[in-house]
Amino acid sequence: MSLRSVAVFFLLSPALCFGEKTVLILGGGLAGLQAAATLRSQNINFVLLESTNEVGGRVLTRSFQGRPINVGPAVINPGAQWIHGISTENPIWALASSDECNVTSAFFGYDTIAFYDADGDGFKTDQETSYADVDAVFDAIDVIAENATKYAGMSLREALNDEGSWTVNTSMKSAINWFAVDFEHAANASQLAAGHIALPTYEVFGEDNHLITDSEGIQKIPKCIAKQANLVEGTNLHLNARVKTIDYGSTNNVTVTTSDGKSYSADYAIVTFSAGVLRHQGLDFVPPLPEDKQEAIEKFRMGLYETVYLKFRNNFWGETLKSVANSSQGVNNILVGTSNRSWVFYFYNLAPFHDDWHTLAAVATGELALKMERQSINKTRDEIMDLLRQQYGNATEDPVDIYVPIWYHDDNFYGSYSYWPLGLTRSEFLDAKASISGKLYFAGEAFSEDFPAFMHGAYLTGEEAANCVVKKIKPDFDFTCNITDKSSESPTPTPTGSATLLNSSFTAMAVSIVSFLLLPWL
C-alpha cells in the first residue's frame, strides 16, 4: 500500500476521521464482552480496555502447577463454576449449549450431600435430620422472600428469628444455615437484606444447576463471546490496560487514562468494573460522580467465596461421595470464624467428572475465606487435611497439588461477587446504576437487580447498557432504555467534534501524516 493510499485510508475510515460515534468499554468480564458483542452486531465501533492479560474477569480457568498426575495438569475454575438455571431462556446456558460454544457440563444436584459434624472422632450426624433441617431453612427463607415488604429493613438473621420456624441451636444447624445462606450469597445472614433475599434465577430459569466440566474450563464461555464480538488484541482490544481516570466532564466525549499514561477517547463509555473496584480509591472519576450515585455505590458490598482445589494421586474418598458439609463441634457461631475451629467447609468431589485425575474442591466464605487468603498455602492445606483425616483416617493421603484463589486482595476485583447488603434501598440501587449525562453507563453483575452474583446477571446488564448506547446513536433502534440518567456538573466543552478511539498521541501523529501526504493534492 502506498503512502497516499494510507492517507486515503485515514480519511475514509469512519472510526478514525470522526464520521461515526464510538464507544469505550472498560473491563473484559462477561458484562464488557457482551456489551462489545452487542455493539458489534449493530456495526458500532468500540475499544475494550482490560486490566489483566486475558478476557473473562471472574469467569476464568487455571491449571495446577505442581507435579503432573496421569495425563497432565488438571483444569480448574477458581471463580464461576456453575451455570444456575438450566433453560434456553438463560442466555449463559443458551450460549454454552450452542454448537458455536459447545461447553461441556454435568448436572450437579445437592440431594446426595452427606452432613458431618466434626467432633474429633470422625464425622457423625443424623443424615435424615440434616436433610429435614435443610428443607426447613430453605422454606423459612422462601416465606421471607414472599413477604419482602414485611421484612424490609431487617437483616436476614432478624427475619429468620421473626419468622420463627427455623432456629439455629446446634453446630450442625449452624453448618446447614451456612449452606443455605453463606454458600449461596457469599455473606452471612446478618449482612444480607431480608427484603432482597429472593433469587429470581431459579423461578425464571428453573432450579437445576450444571457444573462446568469442559476440558478448556469455564473460560471457554467468555472466549466464545469475545469471538462473537470479533475482538482483536491491539485494535479493538487492549489488555494490561489498567484504567486510572475516567474524565466525562466534556460535553462531547469521555476520556480514559490508563496507568501507563495512555489516553483513549470516545463519545460513550460503558464501565463494567466490579463493585469492589468502583468503591476503591484507586479509580478516579472527573468530575466526581454525583453525590447520590457515589453514596449508593459505597453501600454496595462484595462477598468472599473461595474454592480451594486439592489434587490427589488416588480417590480415597470413594466414588459415591459427591459433597460433604461439616461443622465444628460445640461452636455456636461457626459462620464468622472467631476462634480456631469456628468455620464451615463444603467439599465437593470432581472425580466422577474427570476420570484421569482426582480432585476435591473445598469451599469457604467470609472470614474463613479471608483467613485463607492471608495465611500460607501450606497452612490452608494442613487445616483442610485435618478435617479429611477425621473422616477417612489412614486412607487419607496428602495432596500432590493445591490451588488457593485470591479474590479480596486482587485489585482487579476486591471480592468474589456482590450481594444486596442491609441498608441498601432499591432507590439507592437505581442511583448507583444510573447513567451520567447520557454517555457514561454502568454494567456488571452488581448492577443486575434480579440476578446479582450470577453470570447471566453480568451478561444481561452488559447487553442492556450497550443497547442503551445504540439507542442514543440510532434513535430508530427498537429498544426502550430503562436506565435512569443523571446529569454531571459543569461539563467542559471541547473544540473537536466526535471523539475517536485512538490513543491521543497516535491521533496527533495520524493527522500530521495525512496533512503532509495530501498537501501536494490540494
What does this structure look like?
This protein has 522 residues and is an alpha/beta fold. It folds into 2 domains: 17-57 and 219-301 and 422-501, FAD/NAD(P)-binding domain (3-Layer(bba) Sandwich), CATH 3.50.50; 61-216 and 306-406, Polyamine Oxidase, Chain A, domain 2 (Alpha-Beta Complex), CATH 3.90.660. It is built from 16 helices and 24 strands. It has a 6-stranded mixed beta sheet, sandwiched between helices. A 5-stranded parallel beta sheet has the order 9-2-1-13-23, covered by helices on one side. Helix 2 (30-41) runs parallel beside helix 9 (220-228), helix 4 (127-146) packs across helix 5 (156-163) and helix 4 (127-146) packs across helix 6. The longest helix has 20 residues, at 127-146. The chain is globular. Residues 1-18, 67-73, 327-342, 490-500 and 504-522 have low confidence and may be disordered.
Tally of helical segments: 16
Tell me the count of domains.
Answer: 2
CATH fold name of the largest domain, please? Polyamine Oxidase, Chain A, domain 2
N-to-C span: 21 Å
List the helices and strands and how they pair.
Layout: H1 3-12, E1 22-26, H2 30-41, E2 45-49, E3 62-63, E4 75-76, E5 82-84, H3 91-96, E6 105-107, E7 113-118, H4 127-146, H5 156-163, H6 171-180, H7 182-185, H8 200-205, E8 209-212, H9 220-228, E9 237-238, E10 243-247, E11 254-258, E12 263-266, E13 268-271, H10 275-279, E14 284-286, H11 291-299, E15 301-303, E16 305-312, E17 323-328, E18 345-349, E19 358-365, H12 366-374, H13 377-392, E20 401-403, E21 417-419, H14 426-433, E22 435-436, E23 440-442, H15 455-473, E24 485-486, H16 504-518
Parallel strand pairs: 1-2, 1-13, 2-9, 7-17, 10-14, 13-23, 22-24
Antiparallel strand pairs: 3-4, 5-8, 6-8, 10-11, 11-12, 15-21, 16-19, 16-20, 17-18, 18-19
Helix pairs in contact: 1-16, 2-9, 2-15, 4-5, 4-6, 11-14
